[in-house]
Structures are given as structure tokens and as C-alpha cells.
Give the backbone structure.
Amino acid sequence: MKKRQITIKDIAKALCISPSTVSRSLADHPDISQETKNIVNAYAREHKYKPNALALSLRTNNTKTIGVILPQIVHYFFSSVLSGIEDEAEKGGYRVIICQSNETYEKEVKGAQALLEARVCGVLASVAKTTTTYDHFQELIDSDIPVVFFDRICTGILTDRVVVDDYAGVCSAVEYLIHSGCRRVAFFGSPAHLAISNNRRMGYEDALRKNGLPVEKELIKICDNYTEALRLTPELLSLPNRPDAFFAVNDETAIGVLNVVKAKGLKIPDEVSICGFTNNSLAEVSDPLLTSVDQHGYELGASAMRLLIERLKGVRDGDRIVSKIIKTNLVVRQTTR
Amino acid sequence: MKKRQITIKDIAKALCISPSTVSRSLADHPDISQETKNIVNAYAREHKYKPNALALSLRTNNTKTIGVILPQIVHYFFSSVLSGIEDEAEKGGYRVIICQSNETYEKEVKGAQALLEARVCGVLASVAKTTTTYDHFQELIDSDIPVVFFDRICTGILTDRVVVDDYAGVCSAVEYLIHSGCRRVAFFGSPAHLAISNNRRMGYEDALRKNGLPVEKELIKICDNYTEALRLTPELLSLPNRPDAFFAVNDETAIGVLNVVKAKGLKIPDEVSICGFTNNSLAEVSDPLLTSVDQHGYELGASAMRLLIERLKGVRDGDRIVSKIIKTNLVVRQTTR
DNA sequence: CCATACAATGCAAACGTTTGCAAGAGTGCC
DNA sequence: GGCACTCTTGCAAACGTTTGCATTGTATGG
């Protein structure tokens, strides 16, 4: 009952010719007569011949497959990155196989092993939060599989990378706040042990300095989720000299701020401006609509994939590692002046 | 410079034994002496031997790979489904390769072809909005590749499916609204040409009927996005006999309603109750927090994958198609009494 | 001492392709 | 008629595995 897919051998047998002739006919090889080609192609089409990608890969030692290792598909940012990766892969004729680490080191390692066994041509990776040792990535590279890190890069390893320009994104957003008249901008950021956090914090501080404003400890909080924002925002608002703007390191947090500010009866943006980061769907349904820094996740994924494909094609010269930076841009909506 | 992965043949040559012995040693075959096994395993570990999944698949005619066809990875619902699929696949030792259709028929067909070429063991699919003909899915089935549809099922084809219990989800949510004292519940739904839309609409109507309330045309609108909600909600609120509750078919729309209601100065939930559908991250950051029907996307994906694996193992008997229904549940928050 | 049994290993084919090389048929030229 | 050429096709090996069967060597039993 098990129906096998039809193979080149089957076609050859049916038409009483050799497999080589069939193969060459399908590939439109000049050595084969037009007549034979016609017969073969007709038969192949009629019987819905599909080349066996496995056999082909084995033969040519080229799987046309890219592995992706990322923390969590469900996060808006990563799913948009993945979407960009997928689209660009398809354009280049590559398949994509994915492994989510769920932020654990162990699953990340398992994923890398699986990709090695699948003989992928290259790997795109964003490292898990709990990862501190990088042997599994090094093993990929040692096996001559190009690795391109995206967003959460791996500092210990010399390899291509493409990251979001957090620093500039935050800096220009904060400058925008300042130029619109804000004088006391609060900053809600992530814990400092991620490289990304520091970049953002520096962007904030530099924007203040560039514009002659003081960096005040009491306006800087570690706060990167909604509930924390609900807890910390009132504290800041009740300062004798309350902030007139908030910059939050993600949109959930910014929405938390927004809800508190509204509840206190303060006018947005006239009395308090708010700016988020990521620009996910939240920003498009809040009231008022949230101004946010767009990270261009899709573009980042697409860009990483393009870079990887260039590597595979050997367009890029050998050792020179390239590090691309995806520019963010501020999407101004209604929470800023 | 190109470093090949080490193969069984390499090990055989290095140890001056035959490839078969190496293969059997690695598989812990009883025919092989413990001594030989030890030597082989040691050598393999030292040189980081990784079995070539391609060759294995070709040999055994089993790729241990599942194909997934879905409309858009970026949507919260689909990315959570995908996450469930991925996790469950990993448990079962399957790889996952994904194709997004971007809601277009053409890409869906291309995806199906690619999966056929990759000789996947089975396929999980959710059909694109623009798809009206199903030959590409039929071709998979004709090639003896089991297909399990999830969420957006394909009515024309007899096959396993797992869907969200839209009808019951909407019905019980609306009943909840009624039992909490609401008498005029408005319904914001999708255009009727999707099967899903009708189920939801029926759930709404039946809930009203069961509780002796009239189904009123003027309370039923086609409206499934944020901006539409901003346009239509004021209309309903200015009716002489305005609704005291809104049920929306997704969370974006519900948030739109919420924002309008708040702006009008009506109390939520005392004067107007609101209930959404999907229970995505929006529901957890709105003010007040949105009551919503959780679709359990992750569980749906995991369940579909489990069903597919059972099929592949032959646990399920041949022709009987199974259709699983994932129960929704109402997450009551602050927009309902 | 021979037959038998058993343990350990090797041979070779197969999975579905591609491809270098050889081979056959036909044609034109001297 | 023989030679060199072109045009078309086929043979066989290779990619990395697994596995049925054959082979070898050794020990056991009569």
C-alpha cells in the first residue's frame, strides 16, 4: 500500500533507457537529443516526478539547508526575525530548519548537534540567556559551517554578526524627547549583565550629556516588564521634581508607564512623554498610540540570511569578519510631542 | 581547507576494520565484541563523529522530518502554535522544516512541493486565506504523506485535523457576559467566508438564545481590526438603547472597543463589559486588563504534532480520520464583571 | 580427529542521484 | 574503403549509511 515517490530509475526502466540519460534530460543537458528530452520530460511530468533532495544532497555534498537557533519563537521580535530569515532563504533556494533553545544552554547545544547531523550549509544563531560557554558554536565553525549571529551575539567567537543599533536607537529617541522640550527623562532598562543593556543605557546617557542635561541616578531604574512598571512609575511620579518623559527598553514596560500616567490624570504627551522600544503590535493599539523605536526585526533576519548566503557563495573573502548594524528608527505617534 | 565531517569509512580505514563493523559497533550490535566496540567508540568520540542524517535517511527511507505550512510566523497565535509543534517534535526526535505561505496560494503550493522533495514524513498545515483549491494537499496525501490540518482546516479533504473550539469558546464567553448581568451584547466578527467566522457567530447567537435574549442585527458588525473598532464602536454606543457588553473576535479589536469606551467616559466593566478572543499579550497590558478567550495555541500545535506522530507510528488505525478539538477557556480579568 | 556450533568480522548491495569516460552509430571527407 | 569527426547514449563509481549473508577462526563435544 505504501506508495513510493517515482524515481529516476523508475523512469529509466519504464522508457527503456539508462538513468544517466534521464538525469541529463531533466537537467536539459546539451548532449541529449531534443526528442529524448521531450519523452522523458513528458513522462516525468505525467507521473509527478520529484527529485529526491536527500540523494541529491548526499551526492553533491550540499544540503541547501540553513539551521536557525533562537531562544523563543513566540516573542514578537524573534518571530519577525524568523520571518525575514524564511523569506530570504526561500529566495535563495534554501530550506530552513529551526531549533528553539527556550533560553536554555542544554537545548541550544542539542540544537547545534542536530544541525551538525543534518549537515546544514550554515547556521544563524541568537544565543540563549543562560549560555556562558560557546564550544557548541565553535564546533560548528571548526566543521567549516559558517555561523552568523544575530541580535544576541556571541562575544567569545570571531564570526559574522548582525545586530540592532541599540545605542543609536536609544540615543536618538532620547534626543528627540529632549528636543521636543523634555528636561527630565527617566530610563527603564534591563539588568546590566547583557551586553545589549549597556548599549542602551549608554545611548540614554550620551543623549543627555550631548544636550547638557545631568545624568541623575534617581531617574534610572532597572525595570523591563509591565508589572514592574506599574510598581516603579508611581514612585518616580511622586518625586518632588517628577520626570516629564519616560524611555522604556521595551513596549510592555512603556505601556505600563502609560497606564499609570493616565490613571494619575496627567496629560500625555503634554505633561509626560513616553517612548518605547521594539515597536510591536502593542504600540499600535494603545491609547494614546505609543511612540516607539522600531528594531526592524524582519530586516535584521533578512540581512543576516543574505550575509550567510554571501558567505556560502564565497562572495565575501575568507577571514575578514563582517558585522552589520541594522539602523533603528523612531516611529513617532501620540505619546510624544 | 574544506574540512569534511568524519565518516564511518574514515573510522574504518583508520582502525583497519570494515565499515560494517564500525556501524554495528556504534549501534551497540550484539554481534560485535566489547573490545572492538570500545575502540571504535573511543575513536568516534575523540574525532567527534556525527552520523550523516542524509545518508541514513536515504538508506532507511525515513527522514525523521516534519514539514509545517502556515500563513504567517509573526502572528502571535501561529508563533505559539509553532512553538508547541517544535517542542513536541523535538521530544519525538523529529526535525521541523517550515514554509510560510504569507497567505498566498502560490507560496503554499511551492511549500508543498518543497516538502515533497525533502521527503518529509508528514505535514502539519494551516491553509492560507486565498487558497480555494486543494490539489497540492491532495498530492501530499496521494504520496502517502500524512497531513494534519490545524486551525484553518481544509474542508475538501478527508484527513486528521485539530481545531480550536471556537463555537464553545464564544458561546461560553457570551454566556458569562449574560450571567454577569449584561443584556445587550454586541458582536464584532470577521467576514463570513471563513468557516471559523461562522462558528464564532453561531456560538454568539446560541448563547443569546439559550438565555432567552433576542438576536439583534444592529448589534452584529463585521469588524476584526483595531481601526475598524475605533470607527464602529461609537456608532453602537450612540444607539438609543446602547449595548452593555462587547464581544470581539480578536484582542486588537477588543482593545479598540476598550479605548473608545474609556474615551467616552463610560465605566468598564460596570457600564460596559468587553471580552476579546486569543488572549495574546495585549490582554495583559491593557488598562483595565482585558478579559479574553484563550485559544491555547501552544497546546494546539503540540496536540497536532502528537497526532501526526501517532499516525506515523501506525498507532492509529488506517482510514478512520480523527478530529481533535482544543478547548478554549475564558481568562477573566478586569473588563468583565 | 572430525563435525558442529558459535562468536566475530567482512563483503556487497541498496537507497536516488550525478558525472567522467567509454562506446556505438552515423556522416563527411580524402 | 578507411579515417576522423560529431552526436547520442550507457556504464560504473561515488556520496555515507545499514544489513543479509558469507566467511573466518576458535572452541566444544562426541
About this structure: The first helix of chain A runs from residue 8 to 15. The CA atoms of residues 308 and 314 of chain A lie 10 Å apart. The first strand of chain A starts at residue 65 and ends at 70.
